[in-house]
Amino acid sequence: MATSTSAGAPSGAVDQERVQQFLEQVITDGGAAVAGLCTSLGDRLGLYTAMAGAGPLTSARLAARTGLVERYVREWLDAQVAGEYVTYAPGTDTYQLPDEHAAVLADPDRSTYAAGFFTMLQAVYATEDSLMDAFRTGEGVGWEEHGPALFAGTAKFFRPGYTAALVPEWLTSLDGVVEKLERGARVADVGCGYGYSTTLMARAFPRSYFRGFDFHRPSVEAARGIAAERGLADRVSFDVATAQDFPGEGFDLITFFDCLHDIGDPGGALRHAEQALADGGTCMIVEPNASGHAQENTNPVGRALTAASVAVCLPSALAQHGPQALGNHAGEEAMRKIADDAGLHHWRLAAESPVNRVYAVGR
Fold this sequence. Notes:
With 363 residues, this protein is of the alpha/beta class. 48% of the residues lie in helices and 15% in strands. Helix 1 (16-44) packs across helix 6, helix 3 (59-66) packs across helix 4 and helix 6 runs antiparallel to helix 8. The protein has a seven-stranded mixed sheet with strand order 5-4-3-6-7-9-8. Strands 1-2 form a two-stranded antiparallel ribbon.
Protein backbone atom coordinates (compact mmCIF):
# COMPACT_ATOMS: atom_id res chain seq x y z
CA MET A 1 0.00 0.00 0.00
CA ALA A 2 1.42 3.39 -1.07
CA THR A 3 2.20 5.90 1.65
CA SER A 4 0.75 9.40 1.45
CA THR A 5 2.91 12.42 0.88
CA SER A 6 2.49 15.64 2.86
CA ALA A 7 0.50 17.02 -0.07
CA GLY A 8 -2.03 14.22 0.28
CA ALA A 9 -1.14 12.39 -2.96
CA PRO A 10 0.18 8.79 -3.00
CA SER A 11 3.96 8.92 -3.35
CA GLY A 12 3.95 6.07 -5.85
CA ALA A 13 1.68 8.04 -8.20
CA VAL A 14 4.07 10.96 -8.64
CA ASP A 15 6.02 11.05 -11.91
CA GLN A 16 9.23 12.79 -10.86
CA GLU A 17 10.12 13.74 -14.43
CA ARG A 18 6.80 15.54 -14.81
CA VAL A 19 7.31 17.18 -11.43
CA GLN A 20 10.66 18.51 -12.63
CA GLN A 21 9.15 19.74 -15.92
CA PHE A 22 6.39 21.57 -14.10
CA LEU A 23 8.85 23.01 -11.60
CA GLU A 24 10.81 24.45 -14.52
CA GLN A 25 7.60 25.90 -15.95
CA VAL A 26 6.75 27.58 -12.64
CA ILE A 27 10.28 28.97 -12.25
CA THR A 28 10.03 30.31 -15.82
CA ASP A 29 6.72 31.96 -14.98
CA GLY A 30 8.15 33.41 -11.79
CA GLY A 31 11.09 34.81 -13.70
CA ALA A 32 8.74 36.36 -16.24
CA ALA A 33 6.70 37.93 -13.46
CA VAL A 34 9.78 39.60 -11.94
CA ALA A 35 11.09 40.54 -15.39
CA GLY A 36 7.80 42.30 -16.05
CA LEU A 37 8.89 44.96 -13.56
CA CYS A 38 12.03 45.51 -15.61
CA THR A 39 9.95 45.80 -18.77
CA SER A 40 7.70 48.40 -17.14
CA LEU A 41 10.75 50.34 -15.94
CA GLY A 42 12.27 50.24 -19.40
CA ASP A 43 9.08 51.61 -20.89
CA ARG A 44 8.39 54.30 -18.29
CA LEU A 45 12.01 55.48 -18.07
CA GLY A 46 12.38 55.74 -21.85
CA LEU A 47 15.15 53.14 -22.06
CA TYR A 48 13.61 51.22 -24.94
CA THR A 49 12.89 54.44 -26.81
CA ALA A 50 16.48 55.57 -26.35
CA MET A 51 17.80 52.25 -27.67
CA ALA A 52 15.46 52.06 -30.66
CA GLY A 53 17.42 52.56 -33.88
CA ALA A 54 20.52 53.63 -31.97
CA GLY A 55 22.64 50.57 -32.76
CA PRO A 56 25.08 49.12 -30.21
CA LEU A 57 25.35 51.15 -27.00
CA THR A 58 27.46 50.82 -23.89
CA SER A 59 25.66 51.11 -20.57
CA ALA A 60 27.39 54.44 -20.01
CA ARG A 61 26.19 55.76 -23.36
CA LEU A 62 22.62 54.66 -22.69
CA ALA A 63 22.74 56.24 -19.24
CA ALA A 64 23.89 59.50 -20.82
CA ARG A 65 21.10 59.38 -23.42
CA THR A 66 18.45 58.89 -20.74
CA GLY A 67 19.88 60.93 -17.87
CA LEU A 68 19.85 57.87 -15.62
CA VAL A 69 22.45 56.36 -13.29
CA GLU A 70 24.81 54.06 -15.19
CA ARG A 71 24.99 51.38 -12.49
CA TYR A 72 21.24 50.86 -12.55
CA VAL A 73 21.16 50.98 -16.34
CA ARG A 74 23.84 48.30 -16.59
CA GLU A 75 21.95 46.04 -14.19
CA TRP A 76 18.75 46.58 -16.19
CA LEU A 77 20.53 45.79 -19.45
CA ASP A 78 21.89 42.52 -18.08
CA ALA A 79 18.36 41.51 -17.12
CA GLN A 80 17.21 42.40 -20.64
CA VAL A 81 19.93 40.19 -22.11
CA ALA A 82 18.91 37.31 -19.84
CA GLY A 83 15.34 37.64 -21.09
CA GLU A 84 16.51 37.88 -24.73
CA TYR A 85 14.91 41.30 -25.15
CA VAL A 86 18.33 42.89 -25.82
CA THR A 87 21.45 41.45 -27.44
CA TYR A 88 24.97 41.78 -26.03
CA ALA A 89 28.37 41.90 -27.76
CA PRO A 90 31.10 40.93 -25.22
CA GLY A 91 33.94 42.13 -27.43
CA THR A 92 32.72 45.73 -27.37
CA ASP A 93 30.70 45.55 -24.15
CA THR A 94 27.68 46.93 -26.01
CA TYR A 95 23.97 46.26 -25.96
CA GLN A 96 21.45 46.54 -28.78
CA LEU A 97 17.66 46.51 -29.05
CA PRO A 98 16.76 44.69 -32.28
CA ASP A 99 14.44 46.64 -34.58
CA GLU A 100 11.85 43.88 -34.33
CA HIS A 101 11.84 44.21 -30.53
CA ALA A 102 11.68 47.99 -30.74
CA ALA A 103 8.45 47.62 -32.74
CA VAL A 104 6.89 45.97 -29.67
CA LEU A 105 8.52 47.94 -26.85
CA ALA A 106 9.56 51.40 -28.03
CA ASP A 107 6.85 53.06 -30.15
CA PRO A 108 3.40 53.63 -28.61
CA ASP A 109 2.03 54.60 -32.02
CA ARG A 110 2.70 51.20 -33.59
CA SER A 111 -0.04 48.57 -33.64
CA THR A 112 2.42 46.04 -32.21
CA TYR A 113 3.30 48.10 -29.13
CA ALA A 114 2.61 45.99 -26.01
CA ALA A 115 4.55 47.59 -23.18
CA GLY A 116 1.39 49.11 -21.72
CA PHE A 117 0.45 45.69 -20.40
CA PHE A 118 3.33 45.88 -17.92
CA THR A 119 2.30 49.29 -16.61
CA MET A 120 -0.86 47.65 -15.29
CA LEU A 121 1.12 45.16 -13.20
CA GLN A 122 2.08 47.82 -10.66
CA ALA A 123 -1.56 48.38 -9.78
CA VAL A 124 -2.60 44.74 -10.03
CA TYR A 125 0.01 43.44 -7.61
CA ALA A 126 -0.75 46.27 -5.18
CA THR A 127 -4.31 45.00 -4.70
CA GLU A 128 -3.37 41.41 -3.84
CA ASP A 129 -4.42 41.75 -0.20
CA SER A 130 -7.77 43.21 -1.21
CA LEU A 131 -8.28 40.32 -3.61
CA MET A 132 -7.54 37.83 -0.84
CA ASP A 133 -10.29 39.41 1.24
CA ALA A 134 -12.62 39.36 -1.76
CA PHE A 135 -12.05 35.64 -2.27
CA ARG A 136 -13.10 35.05 1.34
CA THR A 137 -16.08 37.42 1.47
CA GLY A 138 -17.41 37.45 -2.09
CA GLU A 139 -17.18 41.24 -2.17
CA GLY A 140 -15.55 43.04 -5.06
CA VAL A 141 -12.56 45.29 -5.62
CA GLY A 142 -13.80 48.35 -7.48
CA TRP A 143 -12.03 49.78 -10.50
CA GLU A 144 -11.54 53.01 -8.57
CA GLU A 145 -9.80 51.14 -5.74
CA HIS A 146 -6.80 50.42 -7.95
CA GLY A 147 -3.85 52.76 -8.42
CA PRO A 148 -3.49 55.18 -11.36
CA ALA A 149 -1.13 52.77 -13.12
CA LEU A 150 -4.08 50.52 -13.92
CA PHE A 151 -6.02 53.27 -15.68
CA ALA A 152 -3.01 54.58 -17.58
CA GLY A 153 -1.75 51.08 -18.40
CA THR A 154 -5.12 49.87 -19.65
CA ALA A 155 -5.45 52.87 -21.95
CA LYS A 156 -1.87 52.45 -23.17
CA PHE A 157 -2.33 48.73 -23.79
CA PHE A 158 -5.56 48.96 -25.81
CA ARG A 159 -4.71 52.11 -27.77
CA PRO A 160 -2.42 50.48 -30.41
CA GLY A 161 -5.01 47.83 -31.29
CA TYR A 162 -7.77 50.41 -31.52
CA THR A 163 -5.57 52.65 -33.67
CA ALA A 164 -4.83 49.82 -36.08
CA ALA A 165 -8.29 48.30 -36.38
CA LEU A 166 -11.13 50.49 -35.10
CA VAL A 167 -11.69 52.74 -38.10
CA PRO A 168 -10.34 50.68 -41.02
CA GLU A 169 -11.64 47.27 -39.95
CA TRP A 170 -14.18 47.26 -37.11
CA LEU A 171 -16.39 50.16 -38.15
CA THR A 172 -16.34 49.09 -41.79
CA SER A 173 -17.60 45.66 -40.72
CA LEU A 174 -20.83 47.23 -39.41
CA ASP A 175 -23.57 47.49 -42.02
CA GLY A 176 -24.19 51.09 -43.05
CA VAL A 177 -22.44 52.65 -40.05
CA VAL A 178 -19.51 54.25 -41.86
CA GLU A 179 -21.90 55.92 -44.29
CA LYS A 180 -23.86 57.42 -41.39
CA LEU A 181 -20.66 58.63 -39.74
CA GLU A 182 -19.49 60.25 -42.95
CA ARG A 183 -22.80 62.11 -43.33
CA GLY A 184 -22.95 63.09 -39.67
CA ALA A 185 -24.05 60.84 -36.81
CA ARG A 186 -24.44 60.89 -33.05
CA VAL A 187 -22.23 58.43 -31.16
CA ALA A 188 -22.08 57.36 -27.51
CA ASP A 189 -18.89 55.65 -26.34
CA VAL A 190 -19.83 53.92 -23.07
CA GLY A 191 -17.05 53.02 -20.63
CA CYS A 192 -14.70 55.23 -22.64
CA GLY A 193 -11.86 55.40 -20.11
CA TYR A 194 -9.21 57.82 -21.42
CA GLY A 195 -11.26 58.29 -24.58
CA TYR A 196 -8.75 56.98 -27.11
CA SER A 197 -11.50 55.06 -28.90
CA THR A 198 -13.73 58.16 -28.90
CA THR A 199 -11.10 60.50 -30.31
CA LEU A 200 -10.00 57.99 -32.95
CA MET A 201 -13.52 57.89 -34.32
CA ALA A 202 -13.91 61.67 -34.06
CA ARG A 203 -10.75 62.35 -36.04
CA ALA A 204 -11.87 59.97 -38.78
CA PHE A 205 -15.40 61.38 -39.09
CA PRO A 206 -15.37 65.18 -38.75
CA ARG A 207 -19.11 65.56 -39.46
CA SER A 208 -20.17 63.42 -36.50
CA TYR A 209 -20.55 64.27 -32.82
CA PHE A 210 -19.23 61.99 -30.08
CA ARG A 211 -20.02 61.68 -26.39
CA GLY A 212 -17.91 59.55 -24.07
CA PHE A 213 -19.22 58.27 -20.75
CA ASP A 214 -17.42 56.62 -17.86
CA PHE A 215 -18.19 56.32 -14.16
CA HIS A 216 -14.53 56.91 -13.25
CA ARG A 217 -14.00 60.67 -12.89
CA PRO A 218 -10.15 60.69 -13.18
CA SER A 219 -10.40 58.85 -16.50
CA VAL A 220 -13.05 61.28 -17.77
CA GLU A 221 -10.84 64.21 -16.83
CA ALA A 222 -7.90 62.60 -18.65
CA ALA A 223 -10.11 62.06 -21.71
CA ARG A 224 -11.15 65.71 -21.75
CA GLY A 225 -7.50 66.75 -21.74
CA ILE A 226 -6.62 64.39 -24.59
CA ALA A 227 -9.55 65.65 -26.70
CA ALA A 228 -8.53 69.26 -26.09
CA GLU A 229 -4.91 68.53 -27.05
CA ARG A 230 -6.12 67.05 -30.33
CA GLY A 231 -8.39 69.97 -31.13
CA LEU A 232 -11.56 67.91 -30.88
CA ALA A 233 -13.35 69.55 -27.95
CA ASP A 234 -15.94 71.14 -30.25
CA ARG A 235 -17.22 67.73 -31.38
CA VAL A 236 -16.24 65.45 -28.52
CA SER A 237 -17.47 65.66 -24.93
CA PHE A 238 -16.90 63.45 -21.91
CA ASP A 239 -19.13 63.08 -18.88
CA VAL A 240 -19.21 61.04 -15.69
CA ALA A 241 -22.08 58.56 -16.01
CA THR A 242 -22.72 54.85 -15.64
CA ALA A 243 -23.68 52.49 -18.42
CA GLN A 244 -27.19 52.30 -16.96
CA ASP A 245 -27.89 56.03 -16.79
CA PHE A 246 -25.81 57.89 -19.38
CA PRO A 247 -27.81 60.79 -20.83
CA GLY A 248 -29.01 61.31 -24.37
CA GLU A 249 -31.03 59.49 -26.98
CA GLY A 250 -31.20 59.06 -30.71
CA PHE A 251 -27.65 57.72 -31.00
CA ASP A 252 -26.82 56.18 -34.37
CA LEU A 253 -23.98 54.20 -32.81
CA ILE A 254 -23.36 53.13 -29.22
CA THR A 255 -20.03 51.47 -28.46
CA PHE A 256 -18.77 49.34 -25.58
CA PHE A 257 -15.01 48.83 -25.84
CA ASP A 258 -13.72 46.04 -23.59
CA CYS A 259 -15.95 47.14 -20.74
CA LEU A 260 -19.34 45.40 -20.83
CA HIS A 261 -17.99 42.43 -18.86
CA ASP A 262 -16.73 44.83 -16.14
CA ILE A 263 -20.27 46.08 -15.45
CA GLY A 264 -22.24 44.53 -12.59
CA ASP A 265 -25.47 44.79 -14.58
CA PRO A 266 -24.58 44.22 -18.25
CA GLY A 267 -28.22 43.51 -19.04
CA GLY A 268 -29.23 46.87 -17.58
CA ALA A 269 -26.52 48.57 -19.63
CA LEU A 270 -27.79 47.02 -22.85
CA ARG A 271 -31.42 47.79 -22.00
CA HIS A 272 -30.46 51.43 -21.54
CA ALA A 273 -28.50 51.34 -24.81
CA GLU A 274 -31.51 49.87 -26.63
CA GLN A 275 -33.66 52.76 -25.40
CA ALA A 276 -31.03 55.34 -26.37
CA LEU A 277 -30.54 54.07 -29.92
CA ALA A 278 -32.00 55.90 -32.88
CA ASP A 279 -34.21 53.93 -35.26
CA GLY A 280 -31.87 51.72 -37.24
CA GLY A 281 -29.04 52.41 -34.80
CA THR A 282 -26.26 49.95 -34.01
CA CYS A 283 -24.45 48.83 -30.89
CA MET A 284 -20.83 47.79 -31.35
CA ILE A 285 -19.71 45.53 -28.52
CA VAL A 286 -15.98 44.82 -28.37
CA GLU A 287 -15.05 42.03 -25.97
CA PRO A 288 -11.89 40.02 -25.24
CA ASN A 289 -11.23 37.10 -27.57
CA ALA A 290 -11.54 34.46 -24.88
CA SER A 291 -13.77 31.41 -24.71
CA GLY A 292 -16.42 30.48 -22.18
CA HIS A 293 -14.87 26.98 -22.23
CA ALA A 294 -11.79 26.84 -20.01
CA GLN A 295 -9.92 24.31 -22.13
CA GLU A 296 -10.04 26.65 -25.14
CA ASN A 297 -8.10 29.37 -23.35
CA THR A 298 -4.87 27.38 -23.02
CA ASN A 299 -2.87 29.80 -25.18
CA PRO A 300 -0.83 32.94 -24.40
CA VAL A 301 -3.68 35.39 -25.10
CA GLY A 302 -6.22 33.28 -23.24
CA ARG A 303 -3.91 32.99 -20.28
CA ALA A 304 -3.35 36.74 -20.06
CA LEU A 305 -7.04 37.52 -20.43
CA THR A 306 -8.32 35.02 -17.89
CA ALA A 307 -5.68 36.10 -15.35
CA ALA A 308 -6.72 39.72 -15.87
CA SER A 309 -10.28 38.65 -15.18
CA VAL A 310 -9.29 37.26 -11.78
CA ALA A 311 -7.30 40.37 -10.90
CA VAL A 312 -9.51 43.15 -12.28
CA CYS A 313 -12.59 42.31 -14.36
CA LEU A 314 -14.58 40.00 -12.08
CA PRO A 315 -13.79 41.95 -8.88
CA SER A 316 -14.81 45.21 -10.58
CA ALA A 317 -18.17 43.77 -11.58
CA LEU A 318 -18.79 42.24 -8.15
CA ALA A 319 -18.03 45.56 -6.47
CA GLN A 320 -21.10 47.03 -8.21
CA HIS A 321 -23.44 44.51 -6.54
CA GLY A 322 -25.35 43.92 -9.74
CA PRO A 323 -27.22 40.81 -10.83
CA GLN A 324 -24.45 39.44 -13.11
CA ALA A 325 -20.68 39.37 -12.78
CA LEU A 326 -19.50 37.90 -16.06
CA GLY A 327 -15.72 37.99 -15.98
CA ASN A 328 -14.03 38.65 -19.29
CA HIS A 329 -14.51 35.19 -20.78
CA ALA A 330 -18.23 34.51 -20.44
CA GLY A 331 -18.31 33.63 -24.12
CA GLU A 332 -20.41 34.72 -27.07
CA GLU A 333 -23.45 32.62 -26.22
CA ALA A 334 -23.87 34.21 -22.79
CA MET A 335 -23.35 37.73 -24.14
CA ARG A 336 -25.80 37.16 -26.95
CA LYS A 337 -28.52 36.02 -24.54
CA ILE A 338 -28.04 39.12 -22.39
CA ALA A 339 -28.43 41.31 -25.47
CA ASP A 340 -31.50 39.44 -26.66
CA ASP A 341 -33.15 39.80 -23.24
CA ALA A 342 -32.42 43.54 -23.44
CA GLY A 343 -34.32 43.88 -26.71
CA LEU A 344 -31.29 43.71 -28.99
CA HIS A 345 -32.26 40.67 -31.02
CA HIS A 346 -29.91 41.03 -33.98
CA TRP A 347 -26.42 39.79 -33.14
CA ARG A 348 -23.50 39.18 -35.50
CA LEU A 349 -19.79 38.55 -35.10
CA ALA A 350 -18.51 41.35 -37.33
CA ALA A 351 -14.72 41.22 -36.86
CA GLU A 352 -12.05 39.44 -34.89
CA SER A 353 -8.43 39.90 -33.84
CA PRO A 354 -6.15 37.82 -31.61
CA VAL A 355 -7.20 39.99 -28.64
CA ASN A 356 -10.76 41.09 -29.44
CA ARG A 357 -14.08 40.00 -30.91
CA VAL A 358 -16.36 42.67 -32.36
CA TYR A 359 -20.13 42.21 -32.37
CA ALA A 360 -22.68 44.20 -34.35
CA VAL A 361 -25.90 44.34 -32.33
CA GLY A 362 -29.27 45.93 -33.01
CA ARG A 363 -32.98 45.72 -32.46
